[in-house]
Structures are given as C-alpha cells and as structure tokens.
Write a structure and sequence with these properties.
The complex is a heterodimer of chains A (495) and B (286). Chain A has 495 residues and is an alpha/beta fold. Helix content of chain A is 64%, strand content 8%. Chain A has a four-stranded mixed beta sheet with strand order 3-4-5-6. In chain A, strands 1-2 form a two-stranded antiparallel sheet. With 286 residues, chain B is α/β, with parallel strands linked by helices. Chain B contains nine helices and ten strands. Chain B has a ten-stranded mixed beta sheet with strand order 3-2-1-4-5-10-9-6-7-8, with helices on both faces. The chains are: A alpha/beta (495), B alpha/beta (286). Chains A and B meet through helix 2, helix 7, helix 8, helix 9 and helix 11 of A and helix 2 of B.
Chain lengths: 495, 286
C-alpha cells in the first residue's frame, strides 16, 4: 500500500471520525467492564486491553473503520483459564494468541475464511448475541425487583431516546441517568455497582512481563486456550471486516488484519490486558455514527482511556443495571433477527448448519467449536448435494448382445456406492460399453468402485469397454486401478 | 479517423473550459481525437448521514446497510447525471473548437487510480491545475495533480486558468533524463512546431552542461526550431519565474518529479512549486 493511501485512510474524514470515535469510546466502557466480569478479571484488565487493541489496530489493521477491543467472544473462552490458573496465566496466553494470529497473517490463512459459509456466519453472530445475553443473567441472581426495574428503565432510555434525538448517544444517557437516580435515591447499597466488581484502572497501563515460569508446563496450560482465542479472534475480526466492507463499499486487506490483530494482542498482553478482537456491534455503531477512517478506532481507544482515568469515581458508582441494559442492547443489535424468519424460507440444510453452529457454541461456550461444527456440516451437505449430480443411463443395442451405460456427473466417496449399484450384473451380455465422457473420477473410492464394476462384469464373462475418460481421471486410474493391470479379474474377491 | 488520441480530464470546475481549449489546441496540432474522461468520486469516503445515538436495535446491520445503500444510490444517480451534463458540455465545446472526433467516458473512482489504464492509448494527457476539490484561495495545489502526473507515462499538459494562443515556449533544462526526454519529444512531435524555443539552464555551467545544452539546441534546430539559449544562476523557481515574465513566455516545458515521494515530503517538490507559481500552461515529462 502506498504512503499516500495510508495517509488518506487516516485523515480523509477527520471530523466525523473523531465524533464517531467518541461515541464508540462511550459505548466501549460498559462493554469492556462487562466482558472483564465475564472473563472473571478486574474491569481494569478489559479496559487496558480495549485501549491497547483499539490504538494498535488503528495503525496496523487492514480494515479502516472497524473497531477492535476486548470482546465477549474472547472473554467466554478465558473463563476456565482464569478460574483454574489465575490471571497470571491469562497474560502469556494473550501474547501467544497474538503470535498465532501473526503467523496466520504471514501464511495468508485469511483466505481460509471462504470455507466459512454464510449460514455459519449467521450462526456465529447469533451464538455471540446469545452468549452476551446469557452472560448478563447472573447479574440478576439474588437481586430484587429493583434490578429488573432499573434494567427495564435503562432499555427504555436506550431505545426511546433515539426517537427524540440522534445527537446524543443513548447508552451514555442511560448510564448517566441510572447512576444519578441510584445516587440520589440512595440505592447504592441495594444495587451492585461497577466498583463492587473489582479494581478499576488508576493509572496509564504499564509494561509488565508475565509472572509465570517460562517452561513447558506453562505452555501446556496456555496453549489450548491460545489456539481457541486465536481462531475465534480472527474469525470474528474477518467476519466483521466483511460486514464493514459491505457498509463502505470498499475492500479490506484480510491478511494485514490478521497480523494487526496479532500485534495488538501481544501489546495488550504485555500491558496487562486480555485478548480481544474486532467487535461487530461496535463497528456497526462506528459506521452508523459516521466513522470511516483509522482515526475513529484510534480516537475510541484514547478517549476511552481518558474517560476512565478522569471519571474514575463516577465509573465506580455506575450501577450494574445500567451496564446490563447496554449489553442487552448489544446482544439484540448483534443477533440476526432476519435469520429466524429465514428458517422458513432458506433450504433445510442451511438452517441446520446455522442452528448447529449456534447450539454447539452455546453449549460449549467456544465459538471455535461452533464454527468448526458448522463448517464440517456445511461441507458434508455440500458433498451430499454434489453426489446427487450423478446420472447413469443404459441402452441395449439392437443385437441384444451389447449394452451401453452412460455415466454423467461426479464420482467420489459419497457417490461411489450409487455408481456400483446402477449396473445390472444379472443380464447376460457379450459386451458392455461404459461411456464416461461426462463423468469425473475424483478419488480412491471412485476408482475402487469402477474396479469392482469392471471386474464383476468380467467374472460373468462379459467383455467391458470403458471410453471417453478425461485426462485427470485417467491419471488416477493409472495410479490406483486394478482392472487395467495384467492379471486383473483373477482375484476380484480381494476387494 | 485520427491516428492519435488526447486524454482530457475534467471535473466540470472553472478550469474545465480551459482544459477543453488546451485539448483542442493540441488536437489540432497533433491531428488527434480527444477522449474526455470524467471521474465520479467514490461516494463511500464520506458518510452520507450520521446518527450519534450509539444504539443498535433489531437487525441493526441489515437496516444500516439498507439505509446507506439507499442514500448513496440517490447521491450516485445525481452525480452520474451531473457527470453526463459535464461530458455533454465538454463535447460541444470541443466540437465547437474544431476537434473532429470526441469521445467521452465516465468512471467511478479516483483519477489517480485509473488514469494509468486510460493514458495507455493517449499521446498526451490534459488536466487542469486545480479542480473542484482543491482549495482555490491558498494558491495551493492538490496532491491529486501530483499523483496523476506521477502515474502517467506520457507527457501531461497542465492547463492554466485561461487559454491563450501560444507563440513560444521555454524548456527548463537541467540535463536530467526527463529534460532530455522533453527535448526529444518537442523535436519530434508536431505539437510545438513553428513556435520559438527558449532553452533555459539555471546554475553555473560546466563543460558537461554546455555540451548537453548544445546537443539539445542542435536537436531542436535540426527540427526547424529557432532556439535561444539562456543560462542564469540563482534559485531555479525564481529564475524561471523571472525569465518567463521577461521574455513573455506562453508555455513552460519541464521534466517532472525526479525525486521519490519520500524526499519530496521533506524538501518539497520543485515541480509542484513551479506549476503553482507560473501563470502558464505547463507541459510535463516523466
């Protein structure tokens, strides 16, 4: 990329980028705190991470206008690590995640995204929304009617205010109003506040080395988490990049985004933060607020940190109810409601893929597993569909001594058995001709099936002629098949 | 059918009529057709509408996308219509100036990104000193012009505000590669034939310079040009400016952007500075 284009990506839209960055920063505060709570760490961890990631990705990312920070998808993955081994192990895991992501960028693994079908993407965002929503439920536990009332009031503000004015961020108003109400009515003791959830940042993030022994035992602990984190982080980032591509009608550099995410996670790890990735909801908010350039992500990170440090005391007193309301909004905004209606319209197989992705994720709390299941299932469905593109006709010659079988379509492991069944071995014939001009033999199973058919005819004393095979299939036959080798036909039972 | 082709880039700004006149002048001399190119600015660079509510509701992504597409579609239709009007106007102005063949083209994107594919078939590119987006007040040239010139392989004629009939031209000669290319082109092409040539060298001369100056003058004289050689010392920009004023020069010919963009960022570019200060059309060679 040229220098001038990079410059343009920063400064082509400065005023709106700064405003959008501010709106995003305000929306990031509750998210970063909420995701820290999900992961089981102090809010400071998520806030530092969000700052580091947003700022680093502004410089190194491949998709201007996209917002990255501490995310729910990543937070749910670290729960086990933090619970069993403590936060000390989270930081090296974050750094290792970054290393994997850089490698993915260097080896251009971003291209693998094309194996993730549309249905899997829909399943991913739906699962993400459900996870974010479910993570809010524990906040209601043991709380009274007051909590429900506050959350309902918060949601009313968030969704009601934009009908009156779109000039002020309504989640911010929700937070401010609920905090003031809670303080002025003296509800602080009966409602949990952010201050109750752990430590908030009191200073700028500082560089620290992880305090864990650097040995194979540590690696054994963090490796599985780092792999999952790296995969989920890249998946969500690349999906979000595609969404922003659609909004702005421009293309993004996916591999650059991978390395950018990697570097930002390494930085986050060394500055005491947790791993993060691109955020679908925040990126939508950014674009909606007019953010298009790299400047908006940078501004979001910097303003976030300033707000947190300056408004330290206020942030401490925000009732959790306000954060829960904001997070419910995020989960509602992330969920693809269209997909519910589409269950009726779309083909059963696409719906099955989408639902599988959602269900596996929700039960395993691991989006990587959900996406893996979805991709696997869509590949199976595809293989099945292609296997049906096989058609075998036959016609008896006038002499009634000879039959021509015409094979059309794709022959591979799924369709091989159907191929073998299509021939009538009981008919007594002198000669069988098999026309494979419009067929393609893809793999071992297909050649094996062909072998069996040819040898079986030979055992009945029928001469077999195979014609019209294309070059690629011929190569496979030469390598693997037995029917064309000397001595074939003597030992078909070996099959 | 004309054998060669001139690419005239227009954006309908106040420089446009002058671009057409310059293109028509060159077309007559080169016996060329004129291809007018108008770029429709990429719409997504600037957000059409902003909503600072920061809240996302049901089907937020789909709604936002629908909204953006709808707004941009309306804008794009208006822009395309305006572009068509600009091209129609260009066509009629060029035909009125006696150009026999005029083609018109509209494209989405930035001029600097797509000029390379268009100028391939053109012998000469004509562009205005400033466009719609450049800041007119400050006498400041947009980076767009520089990027366009940098991506062109063929000579670029940068049109001044008004077209004036041309009787002479000055070649700012520094002995460099692009200056020699300029001399060669001028000697061979019918573009500047029959005009008086000034060959200006700024700096204290040495044997090598004298030789290349003499060679350049020889080349021009061989093609029937009347040549005046001038050698001055001083800061090139100021010297060129004063010679241009003194000799009533009508056209400045020079090599362009000999340095890398990085160096340029630090020390600034003589080329851009020259285009800015002389109130003349400038013919540039890369």
């Amino acid at each position: 990329m040229t220098q001038s284009k990079y410059f343009q990506e920063w400064f082509s839209n400065p005023r709106k980028d700064l405003i959008a960055g501010t709106v995003v920063a305000l929306a990031l505060i509750p998210e970063a705190i909420a995701f820290s709570i999900i992961a089981g760490v102090d809010p400071a961890v998520g806030l530092y991470a969000s700052f580091c990631i947003a700022v680093v990705i502004a410089f190194l990312g491949g998709r201007p206008g996209m917002i990255s920070a501490a995310t729910g998808a990543m937070a749910v993955l670290m729960v086990g690590l933090v619970r069993d081994h403590g936060i000390e192990y989270l930081l090296p895991a974050t750094v290792l995640t970054g290393v994997f992501q850089i490698l993915a960028g260097v080896f251009k693994l971003g291209a693998l995204m094309r194996f993730v079908s549309r249905s899997v993407v829909t399943g991913f965002v739906n699962a993400l929304a459900i996870i974010i929503f479910m993570a809010q439920l524990p906040e209601f536990k043991g709380q009274g009617v007051l909590m429900y009332g506050m959350v309902a009031a918060g949601l009313a503000i968030i969704y009601g205010l934009p009908r009156l004015t779109t000039a002020v961020p309504s989640p911010l108003v929700c937070i401010v109003v609920l905090t003031i109400v809670s303080l002025s009515l003296g509800l602080e003791d009966s409602l949990r506040t952010v201050g109750d959830m752990g430590e908030l940042p009191a200073s700028l993030p500082a560089f620290l080395l992880p305090e864990v022994p650097l040995n194979f035992e540590t690696l054994g602990i963090i490796l599985p988490y780092a792999i999952s984190l790296a995969i989920v982080g890249l998946l969500e980032s690349l999906m979000t990049a595609t969404i922003v591509d659609d909004f702005t009608d421009t293309s993004s550099n996916k591999n650059r985004e991978c390395t950018g995410q990697g570097v930002s996670n390494i930085v986050a790890g060394f500055f005491g933060g947790m791993a993060g990735c691109a955020m679908i909801g925040q990126s939508v908010i950014n674009v909606k607020s007019g953010g298009r350039g790299r400047l908006s992500a940078f501004a979001a990170g910097v303003i976030l940190l300033i707000l947190i440090l300056v408004l330290d005391d206020f942030v401490r007193r925000i009732p959790m109810a306000a954060l829960v309301a904001v997070m419910i909004m995020v989960s509602i905004g992330t969920f693809s409601w269209q997909s519910i209606r589409n269950l009726k319209v779309h083909h059963r197989t696409s719906s099955a893929v989408m639902l599988t992705t959602v269900l596996v994720t929700v039960f395993s709390h691991n989006l990587a597993l959900g996406v893996g299941a979805g991709v696997l299932l869509s590949a199976l469905f595809f293989a099945y569909k292609v296997s049906r593109l096989l058609e075998i006709d036959s016609a008896l010659e006038v002499s009634r001594k000879e039959r021509v079988y015409t094979v059309r379509g794709q022959l591979f492991f799924v369709s091989a058995s159907r191929f073998a069944e299509a021939f009538d071995f009981q008919e007594v014939l002198e000669k069988v001709r098999i026309d494979v001009t419009h067929a393609h033999f893809w793999d071992l199973s297909a050649i094996h099936a062909l072998d069996r058919v040819v040898l079986k005819f030979r055992r009945e004393g029928t001469e077999v002629e195979l014609f019209g095979m294309n070059e690629a299939s011929k190569t496979l036959v030469l390598q693997i098949a037995e029917h064309d080798k000397p001595g074939a036909g003597d030992a078909p039972a070996a099959h | 059918m004309a054998t060669s082709n001139i690419l005239a880039c227009t954006d309908g700004s106040i420089y446009a009529p002058s671009v057409y006149r310059h293109a028509a002048w060159a077309a007559e001399r080169l016996d060329a057709a004129v291809n007018v190119l108008h770029m429709l600015n990429p719409h997504h660079e600037i957000p059409v509408k902003t909503d600072l509510s920061g809240s996302i509701g049901f089907n937020a992504r789909q709604h936002l996308l629908d909204e953006i597409v709808e707004l941009e579609a309306a804008q794009a239709r208006v822009a395309a219509k305006r572009g068509q009007a600009i091209l129609d106007d260009a066509k009629s102005q060029l035909e009125a100036s006696g150009v026999r063949e005029v083609f018109a083209d509209q494209k989405h994107g930035k001029l600097s990104d797509s000029i390379a594919s268009y100028e391939k078939d053109a012998e000469l590119v004509v562009i205005g000193k400033r466009g719609n987006n450049a800041d007119f007040e400050k006498g400041h040239l947009g980076t767009n012009l520089e990027r366009v010139i940098r991506s062109c392989q063929h000579p670029v004629l940068v049109a001044s505000r008004e077209f004036k009939p041309m009787r002479n031209f000055i070649i700012a000669f520094d002995g460099g590669k692009s200056a020699c290319k300029a001399v060669e082109y001028v000697a061979q092409s019918p573009l500047l034939q029959d005009m008086h040539a000034y060959l200006l060298y700024v700096g204290s001369g040495n044997a090598k310079v004298e030789a290349s100056l003499a060679k350049a003058a020889g080349q021009l004289r061989a093609s029937g040009f009347e040549v005046t050689i001038e050698q001055r010392t001083g800061e090139p920009e100021r010297v060129i400016e004063s010679v241009v004023a003194q000799d009533h020069i009508d056209l400045l010919v020079m090599g362009a952007y000999g340095h890398s963009p990085i160096r340029q960022l630090i020390v600034g570019s003589t080329t851009t500075e020259m285009i800015r200060i002389v109130r003349l059309p400038v013919l540039l060679f890369r």
